[in-house]
Design a protein that fits this description.
heterodimer; A: 285 residues; mainly alpha; MetI-like fold; 2 domains; 12 helices; 74% helix; flat; B: MetI-like fold; two-stranded antiparallel sheet; globular
Amino acid sequence: MAQARSRRTRIGMQIAEHSTGIIASLLFLAPIVWTVLSAFKPAQESRQPPLPPWPTTGFSVENYATLNTFGDGLWLPAQNSIYVSVMTVVLSVIVSVLAGYGFSRFRFPLKNLLFVVILSTIMIPFQSILTPIFLVLTKIGLHNTLTGLVCVYVTLQLPFSIFMMRNAFDAVPREIEEAARMDGANNVTMLLRVMLPLVWPGIVTIALFAFLSAWNEFLAALVLMTDQSKFTLPIMMTALQSGRFGAIDWGAVQAGVTVMMVPCLVLFLLLQRFYIRGLMAGAVK
Amino acid sequence: MTSIAAISTPARRRKLVGAGRRQWIGLLYVAPAVALVVVFFIIPLCMTAWMSLHNWPLMGAHSFIGLDNYWAILRDTRFWNALKFTGYYTVVVTIAIFAVAFPLALFIERPRPLTGFYRTSFFMPAVIGFASASLLWSWLLNVDSGLFSPAAFELGLTEKKVNLLATFQPAFWSIIAMVVWKVAGFTMIILMTGLQSIPPDLQEAAMIDGAGPLARFRAITLPLMRRTLALALILSVAGSVLAFDQFYIILRGGPRNQTLTAVYWIFNQSFVSFKLGYGAALSMILLIILVALSLIQLRLLRQPEGVD
């Protein structure tokens, strides 16, 4: 009797727990799902409140077509965003792998000082140095260029990614290197052939963080990209949403938000393991 | 073992010969990173301090004016109002985030079927950007084409469609709701790492001693994850003090400039009014606040974790 009752309460508990979990999950997913579904309504229907969220008068990609008629269209800012994000990933990986290797495996003058200086830049908000960054970019001729924006994004990624890469290299046993050196590997082949395959999870992690932060960054792009042809997606969409191109078309906003969200969500779902790894490394250390 | 020793002895000798040169090569490896940090961080940082002592318009010559910008800040009531609002927002949003993230962390920390699904769903909004999230919610909050006001009206909760963004209180709490939705999953993961580092036998021992769940939470969980709590707290505070995107995109600082944050005010002064020197002085104040917060963080994190 008592046993049966305790089993019944346990099942009851489980039902309660899972309903809480499912309701909470739906609350967190709802705004995303609502937007993605609503974006597929015909333009006429998009002006109405999204009740229900799915298209009721037929499935349509009209909103995406409308979005493409504003300003320079959808493709140019999307291209800018892709260029900036991919370049940020490539450059921040190259620079941090080199620096991580350098800090992990060599002793040179000022090593500790340089490491501490790079890491401590994380304490200083980049929002407070945007004006001078603007002036520096003007000085070196990168003013209002996507390349300039990439340089800024890469620099902002460095404290995290160099820290990650130095730890990744530190975790590789020195015996492996000594054996490779015996086989006549020089520094460069050592790094490319021997070390890289061993630290690749760290590389995926820093690449993922670099992509997400560059793809989503708003303030620096807003300040530094003054020419409409250089707008990234968040800047272009904010211009649209503020009514800069005439009456606000909420259907186009939903389509644009979907375009901005989907790459992040897909990458996260594919590489979740690496994302959590990065967060843990940051949280534990 | 002996074979490794035998191999590494000549290797070590050769290393000694080329040691000096080879070690210097390390500088070459870190050089690109150092160059980027110097050009795009250290120099701008020094320039901020230097510019804050100048009257520096976008066009034309700048002139040295000493501490005048800082004296002007003392009289700039709108900056102090922005700072006050930022502080208020930071306190409210941090409490709200923790109130949601802590139960979620406790919920997903226990392994059960579907935990992976729950964790992923709670975390999804954290990977989309603040700009995307703000654009999304500016639509949901829109009075005519959005979700909340029309839904409340349809359900008969309100007599007419209420514009949530027209007055301070509903606008402010809408932003809080959006930020909690976006950030709680992130804080949850940080807190979860802290929960997982607590040895399970400690909880079991306390359970055997007859400690209830609340007593266990207060006596074991909270003290043992002090460092994680400090980290989550500081990340939340630092992020909120620097809030800009959501207030710019959803509210444009309104209604009636009541939701201008510190970064927003600096942005207005520097890039709308083009008072670059004054903006730099304001930035210095913000920078000092953030560095002070970081130093407090370092102190909190330094304290050893454990039962003491």
